[in-house]
Specification:
Number of helices: 14
Helix content: 40-55%
CATH architecture of the largest domain: 2-Layer Sandwich
Distance between the termini: 9 Å
Length: about 300
């Protein structure tokens, strides 16, 4: 491997498209470019479950920018993955072909179990320190992912639930708020029955989503959203609940004025609704806050495979 070789990972999420470009130099990996752009790919899909060009236009524009950035930075290897939005639609091949045609990027749609594996890998540093059974939760744009860790060696017990911060309101429009809330309660309750820890034992969870990172920024009273200040911070369950109660007393304008929230206030409100059910159904003692996600794990694997093939 040459000095300063670069590698890239693209995560096409239901709400955001994310690009991470990392540089490998003398066995050390460091991030040299990191971008997250909201594209709302899954927006309105609850109503017809089918991609159209208007639906994916913003995502294509974002991926075109990513493609040019990858080329300009002379990236050696990249991988581009798509998750819930492409898993749930009836015509994902349309999106894949459009992306390839207009950006040159090859998209791989991954299953929820693979998404859980990558999520767990990205949090391996925290998991290795916890050592006891625990839970990773990721409240995304179109789904909520739950994954148990430290249950059995090499075993991933995961659950993907098709409610996220974008499609939450859409599904309430279609089915009613009561139905959605009852359905989430049922999903989380059923999952907990398979969560092989003592039901009376409180445990540490890892929150890998913008809902939790935003709550942490507000809890720490930061002047703006600062990922460096919150990465790895451990909130108690009481901290989480108090912060939620504080935000629920504010109106939309007050939430929007908060520099840690801004225009994402509606998404945060939906994320809080889902998080409250998680906190109710699972005996969580503390929550480790992280922004690490699929890109981090994907980049690591791209580099390892490249080095293995070159040796």
């Amino acid at each position: 491997m040459k000095k300063n070789d670069k590698f890239a990972a693209i995560d096409i999420g239901s709400h955001n498209c994310r690009l991470l470009i990392s540089e490998r130099d003398q066995g050390i990996t460091k991030s040299v470019f990191n971008s997250s752009i909201p594209t709302n790919l899954i927006k309105n899909l609850s109503y017809n479950n089918e991609f159209n060009y208007k639906n994916i236009k913003k995502t294509i524009e974002c991926l075109n920018f990513f493609s040019k950035k990858i080329k300009s930075m002379d990236v050696k290897k990249y991988k581009c993955i798509a998750t819930e939005a492409c898993r749930s639609v009836i015509n994902p091949e349309y999106f894949v072909k459009e992306v390839k045609s207009q950006t040159g990027l090859k998209v791989e749609i991954i299953e929820s179990i693979e998404e859980a594996r990558l999520s767990m890998k990205s949090c391996s540093t925290y998991i290795s320190k916890i050592k006891k059974p625990g839970l990773i939760f990721d409240i995304g744009g179109g789904s909520t992912e739950l994954s148990c860790f430290n249950i059995k060696p090499n075993e991933i017990v995961t659950k993907s639930i098709s409610y996220g911060v974008i499609n939450f309101n859409e599904k309430c429009d279609i089915f009613s708020s009561k139905y959605v809330t009852d359905d989430l309660n049922r999903h989380f309750s059923n999952y907990f029955q398979n969560f092989k820890i003592n039901i009376d034992e409180k445990f540490i969870a890892i929150g890998s989503c913008s809902t939790v990172t935003s709550l942490c920024c507000v809890f720490l009273n930061l002047p703006f959203y600062n990922p460096k200040k919150i990465e790895g911070y451990e909130m108690s369950s009481n901290d989480v609940v108090r912060t939620i109660n504080f935000l629920e007393k504010q109106n939309d304008k007050e939430l929007q004025k908060n520099a840690c929230i801004g225009e994402r206030y509606m998404l945060l409100k939906n994320g809080i609704k889902i998080l409250k059910i998680i906190m109710k159904k699972f005996p969580i003692e503390n929550v480790i806050v992280t922004q690490k996600g699929l890109r981090d794990a994907l980049t690591e694997e791209i580099i390892l495979n490249y080095e293995k093939n070159k040796s």
